[in-house]
Design a protein that fits this description.
Two copies of one chain form a homodimer. Chain A is an alpha+beta fold and about 250 residues long. The first copy, chain A, contains eight helices and nine strands. Chain A has a six-stranded antiparallel sheet. A two-stranded antiparallel sheet of chain A has the order 1-2. The relative contact order of chain A is 0.11. Chain A binds a DNA duplex (19 and 19 nucleotides) through α3.
Chain lengths: ~250, ~250
Amino acid sequence: MPAIVDPNDYTPKYYQLVTILRERISSGELLPHQPIPSERQLEDIYSVSRTTIRQAIDLLVRQGFLYREHGRGTFVSPQKLQKGISELTSFSEDMRARGIEPGQKILELKMAVPSEEVRQRLELPADQDEVLFIERLRLGDGVPMGLMTSYHVLPEGLTLDREGLEAVGSIYSLLQEKFHLIATEADETLEAVLATPREAGLLQIAAGSPLLLSVRVTYSQYRRAMEYVKILYRADRYQYFAKLTR
Amino acid sequence: MPAIVDPNDYTPKYYQLVTILRERISSGELLPHQPIPSERQLEDIYSVSRTTIRQAIDLLVRQGFLYREHGRGTFVSPQKLQKGISELTSFSEDMRARGIEPGQKILELKMAVPSEEVRQRLELPADQDEVLFIERLRLGDGVPMGLMTSYHVLPEGLTLDREGLEAVGSIYSLLQEKFHLIATEADETLEAVLATPREAGLLQIAAGSPLLLSVRVTYSQYRRAMEYVKILYRADRYQYFAKLTR
DNA sequence: CAGTGGTCTAGACCACCGG
DNA sequence: CGGTGGTCTAGACCACTGT
């Protein structure tokens, strides 16, 4: 059996194991509802301690690839449970994961004084009086998918320009590159609303059509709110997926 | 400092620690963005090994109560991040968590031959030809919140009656009690739709009002689909929460 | 009963952060 | 530099499952 670790690899052993096991699952070598080797067997196979084995399996269980049954073994999850967890993704990543080519049309981009609602959502300090406001029409395979309105907290006195965003495409990449801000968590709410005439026009649907409204506050690695985003999705083109566990 | 374990308590130590730490957070003793004691300090305080400490902290981090920063410490999350993860809950649990008293009016309950759509969602074996069909109006503080349609896979030849469901209230309790079926995971999709005249009448809103449609397939401890549920929520009374992580 | 996962210990070395 | 979290080891005992 393969000696596990490549000592020149800086990746932790448990994560190398995760990669190996996920490969053995997706390749079809390990089939749904069939047991993987027991933890003690994996110790011998890969020459790592049981703690490390369990660390890897724990992660795969949380990700939905495996499930455990006390006293029986650890088994491969059916395909249905192997995808769609609550991951923080950008619109572009979300679209690509669905096999759709993302696109955008920037309608407006400027520094603006935030409303009280936006101030509260972003928990803005009193001395910060401007945020970056962007309104974009988001496209999927060239067709309007949603209307995105976002407010971004930037370091005092700095800004972004339209050309930069158009060139890079992803505002997350831009924020990381320029200001070292990384999105790590978000709180999201979803609700159903009806399209106003303006929204309907932009999204090329009839006024009064149903829309899925996602409202999200994203937090940076410093645990501070870094953006407030609303996306109005066309209900006929967008469904939200979630995986729930007990 | 308090000796940790009550040896007469069968709860694992790491989980007792989780409870203790969550209590210290919610009581306000540990404040947002402030560090909790280091892992080595917690070893001494509670007389458990660092592995056990980390097991407890891992869980609280995943639940959003704490966050770690390598080389600095472990900190209390701001309130915003302390709630609303992807938990599999019943309608009743969901309502109670929102401070609303759940209720229901059973419109129909019978064994029925499933449509092809339902068969596929439930991955029904060929020899299973009947499922339990229930249609219920769900109430929140006595007012219509949603219309729930559900299909349940029961052991061959068995069923449930209306009186049992009305007495117990929760179908999950009933399924566990009678058939030892426990819901462990679910896949959910959310979309926006418009109310048909019938739905509008039952929900006491205008036809054409927006509704949030949740479609869920729930899996049992045996990793088999056990129910297929659609809930149409009144958009004016219901929002869906999710917490996302990177 | 033997084999499985669940919990737990007492160590160790590393990478990262701040003063 | 000392203190933090991140990874890892080699054991141990328990609770649960099947035969």
